[in-house]
Amino acid sequence: MKKVFIDGDSLTLQDVVNVARKGFSVELTDEALKKVKKSRAYVDKLVEEEKVVYGITTGFGKFSDVSISKDEAKDLQRNLIVSHACGVGKHFPEDIVRAIMLLRANALAKGFSGIQPKTLETLIEMINKGVHPAIPEKGSLGASGDLAPLAHMVLPLIGEGEAYYEGQLMSGKEAMEKAGIEPVVLTSKEGLALINGTQVLTAVGALTAYDAKNLAKLADISASLTVEALNGITDAYDKRVHEVRPHTGQINTAKNFLNILEGSERTTRQGEIRVQDAYTLRCLPQIHGASKDAIQYVLDKVAIEINAATDNPLIFADDEYAISGGNFHGQPMALTFDFLGIAIAELANVSERRIERLVNPQLSGLPAFLTQKGGLHSGFMIAQYAAAALVSENKVLAHPASVDSIPSSANQEDHVSMGTIAARTARDIYYNASRVIAIELIAAAQAIDFETADKKLGKGTKVAYDKIREVVETWGDDRIMYKDINKSAELIDDNSIVEAVEAVIGELN
C-alpha cells in the first residue's frame, strides 16, 4: 500500500488528496515521534507540578479561571469531547473526513500539542483501517478552531459517537472493535489538542481548491469548444496582448486557448467574419485568468495551513514554556476561502453567458436552442435555465462568511471567523459551477455538430469533443436532459477530459 509520511512540516496538497481519495496509508516519521514524546513529557511535568496552564490545569473558554486538579484531568478531557460534540446536519463525505483526520494528525505531529504518542498513533490507525467518524457539517464558528466537528472526530477514538466502517454507519465502539483498534483514554491536554484547530475548514477548503484548479482548466476547454462553435476570433489570445498586462493567470490562459485550439479550421481571425467578439469570448484570458490567480493564492495559503500548529496552548518543550495564543483562529483561511468561492462562481458566471450565446439564434446564427425542430422540440432551452439558476444561487452563496462574527463563550471568544462556513459554501459553489460547465460542454458539442462543412477541430478540442461524444450522443429529437448533464458532469468529476487533453497538448495552466 502506498504511504504518506507525516512530520508536521512537509505535507503537500497532493498528499492530502492521496490519503483522502486514493486510500494511501499514513505513517508518522521517527523524528516526529521524538518531538511528540518530548512535548508530552513537558505536559506531564506541568500536571505533576500543578502549574496553572490553560486547558491543562484549568477549564475551557470562560471557565479558564477554574482550577482543575491532576486527579480530574481525565474527566476534564472526556467531558470536553462529549460536551463539544454539538454538530448538526448531514455528515461530511468520506474524502473530507479522511482529510480532516490526516490534517489533525499532521498538526499533532509537529510536537507543539502535548498529545500522547499512543493517542496520535491510534488516530493514524483509524485512517489506515478505514474507521471514519461521522462528522456533521454544521456547527463550527471557525474559532476556537473547529471545536464541534472535531469533537465528533474524536468520539470514536474514545469508543463513543458514530463512525462509518466498510461503508456502514454504526456506533464508534462497534467500528473500532470491527477494525481491531483499541479506543484510548484521554488524559491532560489531549482533548483540547485534538479539537482546538482549523483542520475541518482547511480540509474542506483544501480539497475544494484542488478541484477548483482542475475546473479552471476544464473551463478553458469548454470555452474553447464554444469558441469553435461560434467561429470565435483567436487574435484576442495573441501573447503580445497579454505581455503588456502581465498577470500570470491571464498570460497562461491565453496560451491555453491557443494550444487547445491549435490547428482548428473553425476559428477565425479579426475581420474575417467579425471585427471582434463579445466579452465572453474575447476577454476569456482576463476573466478565467483572474480566477486562476485567486485559486493560486488560495493554494499558497493552504500549503501553509496544512502544516501549521493551530491549537492552544502551544507547548514549547525546548523552552519549557506553554503559551496561550490564538493560532486556532480561522481568519487567515476564512478570508481565503471566501475568495475561493467568488473565484469559482465567476467561472460559472461566464460559462452561463457562453451557453446563452450558443442557444440564442440572434447571437449565434445557429438553430434556436440547438434543435432543428424548434417549436415541436425545445432542445437546450431549459438547460440554459438550469445553468442560470445555478449561477444565481452562487451569487447568494458567494456572500462572504468572514464578514460576520457572533461572540461566544460569554464574550471570552468575542470575534470568530466563520471560516468553516466559508469553506463549505465554496464547496457548494464549486458543485454548482461544475454543473454549469457540464451543460456548456454538451451544448458546445451540439452546436459544433450543426457545422455541415468538414472542418477540423483544434488539437485539444477534438479530444474533448470525442470524450463528450463517448457518453452523450448528438441531440436529434428531445430526450430526458438531466441524464446527459449527469454524464457530462461525471467527466468533470473524474477529471478525464482535462487528463485526455493534457496528454495531447501538454499541461494546462
Explain this structure to me?
- This protein is mainly α and 509 residues long.
- The protein folds into two domains: 3-197, Fumarase/aspartase (N-terminal domain) (Fumarase C, Chain B, domain 1); 205-505, Fumarase C, Chain A, domain 2.
- The protein has helices at residues 13-22, 30-48, 73-84, 94-108, 117-129, 147-154, 172-179, 190-195, 199-229, 239-243, 248-260, 279-282, 284-305, 331-359, 361-364, 381-397, 419-448, 459-471, 481-493, 496-505, and strands at 3-6, 25-28, 88-91, 131-133, 136-138, 162-165, 168-171, 314-316, 321-323.
- The strands form four sheets. Strands 4-6-7 form a three-stranded antiparallel β-sheet. A two-stranded parallel sheet has the order 1-2.
- Helix 9 (199-229) packs parallel to helix 17.
- It is elongated and about 85 Å long.
- 54% of the residues are buried.
- The model has no long low-confidence stretch (mean pLDDT 95).
- Belongs to the PAL/histidase family.
- Pathway: Amino-acid degradation; L-histidine degradation into L-glutamate; N-formimidoyl-L-glutamate from L-histidine: step 1/3.
